[in-house]
Specification:
Largest sheet: 7 strands, parallel
Strand order of the largest sheet: 3-2-1-4-5-6-7
Order of helices and strands: HEHEHEHEHEHHEHEHHH
CATH superfamily: NAD(P)-binding Rossmann-like Domain
Number of strands: 7
GO molecular function: ketoreductase activity
Number of domains: 1
Bound molecules: NADP nicotinamide-adenine-dinucleotide phosphate
CATH architecture: 3-Layer(aba) Sandwich
Pfam families: adh_short
GO cellular component, one term: endoplasmic reticulum
Transmembrane segments: 6-32
Keywords: Membrane, NADP, Oxidoreductase, Transmembrane, Transmembrane helix
Length: 303
């Protein structure tokens, strides 16, 4: 084989591999988005535990799980908001049970959080855990300007909170060799190489992505599916964004969330495909991105 012929065969082979990979991803996307049936969530167990269930995405998920016939254990820091959520669920879904546990992931100690949850789940057939509680910056700022309380809160709720709740719940799943744990990360982990001016929030969500990937490998042979779902913008009190074509309401988001829950191939999943498609196309260099984020934040420009 002369050199030109070899070169032609090699480049054609590489081209075919690349096209096959793209086709595989495309057909997998079609299957996962349009064809794959929704998993029977009761298969994991009859109770779902949701942190951050008093507002936004967590609350919508609690209602969505209840609509699928699951009993709900609501975890939250505010007893009144827990009562309201519980009533909302029971008013709509008569056949489910709801329990509430008051846990403040920022102000309770690790020991208190673990004990409260272990006591609450004792004797329950827990199938699903969703770590949805989260804290973000109220507005963008440089890292050195983040006050200690906010810094503490982001690390305690987003990082330590999800870790401790998982540690409290996973032994019961290991015992019955079944369960699903879904950590709510952030689309920034998947679509952006960095997310300046909200550094601590972005870093806390990157932790969750890695935590989910590692624990998934540790426990998938024990029948436990662990995912990190990574939404982009959803219209909640955290983002203060209005719902639009690309910014779903938490109720719309939660329906897609349920659809992808437990999909083994979807370790890191941005449920809303419209957002995913758009953001995957955006490729700007770090300086341009920093300038763009800076301009978006009027208070930084005005200095
Ligand atoms: N919205 C988005 O665009 C978006 C995008 C990517 C990722 N996420 C993630 O999705 C999750 C839900 O966010 P969201 O938009 O629904 O926010 P949200 O409406 O502000 O709800 C946050 C939930 O976390 C709870 N929480 C906050 N601090 C807590 C603490 N110390 N102890 C216990 N619970 C606490 C809140 O309780 P209270 O009701 O008492 O305030 C609330 O239930 C978060 O992890 C967030 O980072 C959201």
């Amino acid at each position: 084989m002369d050199y030109t012929h070899f070169f032609l065969v090699a480049t054609t082979t590489l081209g075919l591999i690349s096209i096959s990979k793209s086709l595989f991803h495309f057909f997998h996307w079609i299957y996962a988005t349009l064809i794959r049936p929704t998993k029977n969530l009761k298969h994991y167990g009859s109770w779902a535990i949701i942190t951050g269930s008093t507002d936004g995405i967590g609350k919508s998920m609690a209602l969505e799980f209840a609509s699928n016939g699951l009993n709900i254990l609501l975890l939250g820091r505010n007893p009144l908001k827990l009562q309201v959520t519980s009533k909302d669920i029971l008013d709509q879904f008569k056949d489910v049970e709801v329990k509430c546990v008051v846990v403040d992931l920022h102000n309770n100690t690790g020991d208190e959080i673990m004990k409260k949850i272990e006591q609450a789940i004792d004797g329950l057939d827990v199938g699903i855990l969703v770590n949805a509680a989260g804290v973000a910056y109220p507005y963008a700022r440089y890292f050195h300007e983040v006050d200690l309380d906010l810094m503490d809160s982001i690390i305690k709720v987003n990082v330590e909170g999800a870790t401790l709740v998982t540690k409290a719940v996973i032994p019961s799943m290991i015992k019955k060799k079944k369960g699903a744990i879904i950590n709510i990360g952030s689309g920034s982990t998947v679509v952006l190489p960095s997310y300046p001016l909200v550094t601590l929030y972005a870093a806390s969500k990157a932790y969750l992505a890695m935590f989910s990937a590692c624990t998934n490998l540790e426990y998938k042979h024990q029948g436990i599916d662990i995912q990190c779902q990574v939404p982009l913008f959803v219209s909640t009190k955290m983002t203060r964004m209005k719902a639009s074509l690309f910014v779903p309401t938490p109720d719309v988001y939660s329906k897609t969330f349920i659809f992808f829950t437990g999909g083994k191939e979807d370790l890191l999943r941005t449920p809303k495909s419209k957002q995913r498609v758009i953001l995957k196309q955006i490729s700007i260099d770090d300086d341009a991105k920093f300038g763009f984020l800076f301009l978006l934040n009027q208070h930084l420009c005005e200095r």
